[in-house]
Structures are given as structure tokens and as C-alpha cells.
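Technical note accompanying the year-one report. For the benefit of new consortium partners, we illustrate the data format agreed upon in the data management plan: each record pairs a sequence with a C-alpha cell string. No post-processing was applied to the example shown here.
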Amino acid sequence: MLGTTMNPTLQEILDLMARIGRPVQLMEVCGTHTMAIFRTGLRALLPESLRLLSGPGCPVCVTHDRFLEHALAIAAAPGTLITTFGDMLRVPGRSGSLETARANGANVQVVYSPLDALATARQHPELRVVFLGIGFETTAPATAGALLEAARTGVTNFMVLSAHKTIPNALAALLNSGEVKIDGFLMPGHVSVITGTHIYDVVASDFQRPAVVTGFEAEEILAGIALTLRMIAAGHPEVGNAYGHTVTAEGNRKARELLREVFEPCDDVWRGLGLIPGSGLQIRPAFAAHDAARAFPAPDAPVPETSRGCRCGDVLRGVITPPQCPLFRNVCTPWSPQGACMVSSEGTCAAYFRFS
């Protein structure tokens, strides 16, 4: 939390907004940023003309119902065990949730890492253990490492159903749509540790928007906002790094090599954004024996995005804020979620419910 005296970075933000002389909308891409901004009360400190939008940076939230239906179909197959992070358990889909499937007898287990899932596969050689690979460049290397270890040690009953995604093409899709005016982006620090800052070059060069990597403490977020506003005031958008003690331009070379060894880019469907070319990570043919998508083909029937009146997709694009969804607080709560944005610990709806 910030002290009671005027923070110098906050004062700079106020001065920069006066210099810019118009409303500014910045999008924090990361769900962890959204939670941190609410938890620290930053929105109440910023001028009304500076608006922060929450973007598609919650991995559970952007995972489309098509993936959930695929996972539910695998869970219903005999001799399978689904392993997943806890946030996925309660996401409601067209056919229910993994939690309801488990209540109805499906073998679904919460794990804390893909290596936990691999250990479960070793313990249960009679089952095909499928790990649900959710997340961006932060978590995908751990999944890649588990796949490499399974291949090296001959654990043939371990598989991954990959919904891993990458950030840059989703940002391009947002900007190409022109649906929401975005003056600049606050980029996720933990993703950028892996990728480096160079992956955001397209945002500055092709779309003329500043993209600034920042951390998750209040002072770090303010520093990121100030750096973004400096670029807007100067009319010179660049990729900036307000998290330089942790993030470099090139990122973690070994982690990126691990990703390239195990995964290859593919087109993927995002909740609220639709099909985005080159935005997904699918398992390479060399690891086909561990690819659940090959062992358990997806259901043939098309899976539309579940609605039920939920506007989670619009929230993820920054089109509305959660209170503008008619279900928010009335029908949709953390105890009775109608969409992924209320389920996930990084979800925008969950943040608004808890802190506003």
C-alpha cells in the first residue's frame, strides 16, 4: 500500500495527464495486475481521466468452452484420470463443470504442477493420466519440462491436453478489432521474465501504442503507468521496461528453447476473442504419444461460447466492466459462478466482486 503523503510517481502521473489534456485508457493485460490494482486501491488514487481496463490476461478466463467440453469428454472415457489446476475445476461449460463431472463419478484430481500430474501417472500405470495445460508463457515451460521427463523416463500413460496460449497475437487481435480505444498496455512481469520484452515490439511498431512491462507492487504499477504516459505525452510509443531488475529484453533463453523443443504455434480459440492465428501452443509430433488431443480427438459438434447471459467475453476485451453485466452479483457470484471470469483467482469479475 502507498503512504498517506503524495507519492512522487503519482504526482508525476497527475502532471502527465494534465499535459496530455485528454482521457487516456490503458489496459493491464495480466489478471495478477488486475487483482493487485484492486487490492492496493490504485484506481481511487488515479485521476478520473485515466481509466484502467482489464484485458485477456487470465489464462483460465480466456480458455474457450471448446477446450472444457473436450476435457469433459476425456473425463467420461473409461480408464482416464484428469489432473488440473484448481481454478479450472468450477468453470461452467455447456455440459457442466469438471467439479460436477467429478461428483458424478469422473476421475478428476487437482494438482499444483505438471510434475505432480506426472508423479500421479507413475503411481497409477493402469490409468491414462491427462494434465490440462492451461496458461501463457509463464506456465507452458513447466508443462514442456514434464513432457520431456515423461518421454525420457518412459511414462507412457502421461498425456497433456494443451490450451497453452501466447500473448502477442491476442493483443494484435484486440487492436485490429478497433472495438475499444486502447492508448497503451501494461504488460505482465512474470510472462516477460520468460519471453523478454522484445515480443511486444509489434505493439509499438505496427500499432503505435506504448507497451510497458511492470511488476505487481503498487509502486511498480505506478512506475509502469508513469512510463506509459510519458510515451503518450511525447508522442513516441516504445516498448518500455519498468521491471528491469527482473525482466530483460531477451528473457529466459533456456525456457524459450524448452518451449520450442516441445511445442509449436497453432491457431487457437480464445473466449471473447474467437480464433486467433498462431496464438496457441500445440504439442509437436515428436511427443505425439503424450498428446491427449491425438489420443482423444475433440468432439465433432461445434461448441459455441456458453452464454447464459454471461458477458465474460466482453469483459475480457475491455468492452464492459463486470458491474455492467446483468448477472454480476445478482446471479453470478463466486459461490454460483456463471462464467470463468468469476471463477478464476485472476478473473476480473472475481476482483470486482471482492474489492468493489
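Partners are asked to follow this layout when depositing records. The chain is about 40% helix and 20% strand.
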